[in-house]
Here is the input.
Amino acid sequence: MLLTGPPGVGKTTVIGKLCQLLGGWRLAGFTTTELREGGQRVGFVGKGFSGQKRLIAHLDHRGPQRVGRYGVWVEAIDALAGELTPAPGVQLFVIDEVGSMECMSRDFVRAVNRLLDAGAPLVATVAMRGGGLAKTIKEHPGARLFEISPANRDGLADELAVILQAAAARPA
Here is the structure.
């Protein structure tokens, strides 16, 4: 399942609510949250379901890898990509998000492609536009794309939880 929509529509909020609704499930992967100071976004933090937490981008980081105004720590994304390794008992992989910053990491791109090739259960947020990995996963034969809008965002996590629970209950 892929969640898409314009910036600021609530993709991260929907995926966060979905993870809460699946509270008894063994999840793997990571979410990305904004780092704010004085009401302004200054960076992004990746949080793995294992407890790992990494600063992945910041306005003050002057490294060579950049997305817009943000300097990106690719090695931090590499570390988070380790959260995408299939393991016994994992019921769902969660990636928030497949975006420009994350795709700077070769380890991340390889890990996502391995999950797709393995047919692992996956929920990810992905940009509406763009090429590369975002386009690849949207065109994957098993992909189901859900576009988030102000009209559907409040109930979408509940709908997705029902779909995932029904799929998990079906015999393999």
Q: What stands out?
A: The mean pLDDT is 93. Strands lie at 2-4, 27-37, 40-48, 53-58, 66-67, 70-72, 92-98, 122-126, 145-147.
